[in-house]
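User: Sequence recovery, please. Input:
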């Protein structure tokens, strides 16, 4: 084939000469690189570098620990109790964090062997929760799991109507009393969700009256100045099958000065003792022989400057209907009051018992005279003050007739 000859650069060979080894300065550089690579690879070891290769593989291996969360990720209508549990296989749980949509943590308990975690209380209803859990295997390698679930929205609910009111100042006999809107068939679950604490601290125990009322009190009257906190964590509590609480509320109240008044029905007197000192001895009239006054410790639960009292409402038929009873303070659910009396003669007080079971003090019609004994006692009393009746020819008042659990021995109260 005709054409121009192929030109070659000087010093460049063709054919087999291109397969010869590198010589000169370039060869020295290549040798140095190979030596460095050999040294870093551990090529001088007796096992040919295999030991380090195995260590690297183990360090990168996945953790053998496995985290399991019940309920499954994305579950809805989850039960508020008994459904949430976190467990670990081939390892131990190191961290379990459960939070609601607002970031509030759920308190839980980790088993001593690190194999499981469960919440210590029920969950709230209709709430989305996040679970973040970490477990470690025997080699210290971690495995994590993140899930979410949503608790059920109940069709039927209950609430607890409580006394005393939030922020109030009360007498030393004031219990915490909660009346439920539905009868409770799992009292243990409901009581566990309610916490009552005091400063200064004192043991406080709850007692059920029937299936819809739960009262809390200490063994003896509160100390003056005590601050009490009531936490109602009822949201999500299954109080009866298919019926759930819907309250998360904190109530606080303060115990004021100590005032205990003792009515002696036979002597027709009421001695008022404040902070251990008698400050007043008031002449009274108690229940007549046909309608005696209960004996026992009674707590003022309501105060009315003027109220109506009708015998029909408490089993006395049409014997009386007084539309303007002054300075009335309720002592029992059944209708026992300590109140002002303007219709009896002044000589009645301190000398005879003529009432229908109440404790009467001399008063003026319309509650307008601040100098009467009834007005003084009304103005000097707090809801929660104690009125003790003795020497009446009647039985002791029942503990659940009003806020009068003090008439139950402590040994019975804590059963």
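Assistant: Recovered sequence (415 residues):
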């Amino acid at each position: 084939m005709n054409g121009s000859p192929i030109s070659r650069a000087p010093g460049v060979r063709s054919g087999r000469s291109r397969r010869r080894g590198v010589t000169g300065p370039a060869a020295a550089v290549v040798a140095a690189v190979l030596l460095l690579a050999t040294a870093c690879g551990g090529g001088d070891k007796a096992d040919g570098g295999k030991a380090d290769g195995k260590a690297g593989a183990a360090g990168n291996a996945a953790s053998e620990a496995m985290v399991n969360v019940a309920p499954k990720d994305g579950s809805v209508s989850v039960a508020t109790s008994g459904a949430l549990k976190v467990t670990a296989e081939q390892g131990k749980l190191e961290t379990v964090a459960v939070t609601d949509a607002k970031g509030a943590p759920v308190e839980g308990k980790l088993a001593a062997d690190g194999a499981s975690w469960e919440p210590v209380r029920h969950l709230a209803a209709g709430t989305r929760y996040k679970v973040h859990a970490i477990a470690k295997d025997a080699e210290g390698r971690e495995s994590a799991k993140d899930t979410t679930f949503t608790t059920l929205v109940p069709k039927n609910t209950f609430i607890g109507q409580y006394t005393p009111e939030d922020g109030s100042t009360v007498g030393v006999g004031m219990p915490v009393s909660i009346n439920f809107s539905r009868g409770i068939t799992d009292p243990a679950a409901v009581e566990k969700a309610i916490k009552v604490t005091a400063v200064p601290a004192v043991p406080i125990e709850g007692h059920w009256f029937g299936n819809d009322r739960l009262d809390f009190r200490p063994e003896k009257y509160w100390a003056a100045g005590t601050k009490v906190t009531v936490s109602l964590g009822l949201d999500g509590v299954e109080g009866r099958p298919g019926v759930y609480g819907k309250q998360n509320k904190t109530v606080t109240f303060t115990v004021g000065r100590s005032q205990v008044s003792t009515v002696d029905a036979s002597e027709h007197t009421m001695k008022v003792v404040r902070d251990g000192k008698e400050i007043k001895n008031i002449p009274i009239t108690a229940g007549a022989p046909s309608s005696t006054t209960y004996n026992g410790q009674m707590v003022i639960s309501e105060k009315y400057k003027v109220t109506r009292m009708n015998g029909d409402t408490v089993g006395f038929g049409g014997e009386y209907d007084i539309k303007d009873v002054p300075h009335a303070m309720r002592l029992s659910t059944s209708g026992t009051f300590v109140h002002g009396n303007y219709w009896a003669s002044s000589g009645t007080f301190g000398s005879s018992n003529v009432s229908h079971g109440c404790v009467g003090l001399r008063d003026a019609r319309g509650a307008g005279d601040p100098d009467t004994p009834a007005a003084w006692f009304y103005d000097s009393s707090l809801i929660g003050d104690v009125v003790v009746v003795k020497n009446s020819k009647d039985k002791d008042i029942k503990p659940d007739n009003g806020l009068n659990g003090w008439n139950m021995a402590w040994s019975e109260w804590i059963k």
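The longest strand covers residues 142-151.
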